[in-house]
């Protein structure tokens, strides 16, 4: 071990530790890019991604733009369209099938709470305005995966209220957009910790 005298203090160089590198890419999603033949509304639909993302370690929502919440309507799993949402709606939830890592309690004191049922929650501050989300305007929406997700080439996205039965959704006549940051693990290493440290 090499030891150095630094102003009367013995120090030694630490050993570099190889750490797998990751790459972050932003992908912009538009609900209007869905196949309308199979998904007539933007309440639940699948989008194909511009590339295959492999070894995904995290996905975060960087920004989102939704129309006014009172324009949204409910849609049951059997295809029955309900009325528009009231102005008293406080928030709505977004799901990405297979990638949800947030849990939620069940309504009416039901003990069968829902696990891995939510990807993100969007607060409604003014029901007369479009719902705009950024990382500075609301709580951070980040889902991490360990072990990493092998590959992702499409996303099934749904929007709903917490109080709706499973399978029901909400949708807007107008489209909305999301910006996702996808972090993937690469097959390369970086060396860290090359600073001198106090000898122990």
Explain what you see:
With 200 residues, the protein is an all-beta fold. The chain has a single domain, classed as Jelly Rolls (Sandwich). The protein is built from no helices and 15 strands. The chain has strands at 3-6, 9-13, 17-30, 44-68, 73-75, 81-84, 91-96, 102-104, 114-118, 120-123, 130-134, 142-160, 169-171, 177-192, 196-198.
First CA to last CA: what distance? 12 Å
Helix proportion: under 10%
Question: What is the CATH level 1 assignment?
Answer: Mainly Beta
Number of helices: 0
List the helices and strands and how they pair.
Layout: E1 3-6, E2 9-13, E3 17-30, E4 44-68, E5 73-75, E6 81-84, E7 91-96, E8 102-104, E9 114-118, E10 120-123, E11 130-134, E12 142-160, E13 169-171, E14 177-192, E15 196-198
Antiparallel strand pairs: 1-2, 2-15, 3-14, 4-11, 4-12, 4-14, 5-6, 5-13, 7-10, 7-12, 8-9
Quick structural summary:
The chain has 200 residues and is an all-beta fold.
Observed structural traits:
200 residues; mainly beta; three-stranded antiparallel beta sheet; elongated
């Amino acid at each position: 071990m090499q030891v150095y005298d630094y102003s009367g203090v013995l120090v030694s160089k630490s050993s570099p530790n190889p750490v797998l590198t990751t790459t972050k890419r932003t992908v912009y999603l538009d609900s209007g890019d869905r196949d309308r033949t199979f998904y007539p509304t933007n309440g639940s639909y699948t989008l194909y991604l511009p590339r295959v993302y492999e070894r995904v370690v995290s996905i975060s929502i960087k920004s989102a733009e939704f129309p006014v919440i009172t324009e949204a309507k409910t849609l049951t799993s059997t295809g029955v369209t309900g009325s528009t949402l009231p102005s008293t709606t406080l928030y709505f939830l977004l799901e990405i099938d297979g990638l949800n890592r947030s849990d939620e309690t069940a309504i009416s004191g039901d003990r069968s709470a829902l696990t891995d049922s939510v990807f993100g929650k969007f607060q409604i501050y003014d029901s007369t305005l479009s719902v705009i989300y950024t990382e500075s305007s609301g709580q951070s929406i980040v889902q991490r995966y360990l072990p990493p997700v092998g590959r992702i080439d499409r996303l099934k996205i749904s929007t709903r209220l917490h109080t709706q039965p499973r399978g029901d959704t909400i949708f807007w006549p107008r489209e909305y957009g999301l910006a996702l940051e996808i972090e993937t693990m690469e097959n390369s290493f970086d060396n860290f910790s090359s600073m001198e440290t106090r000898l122990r």
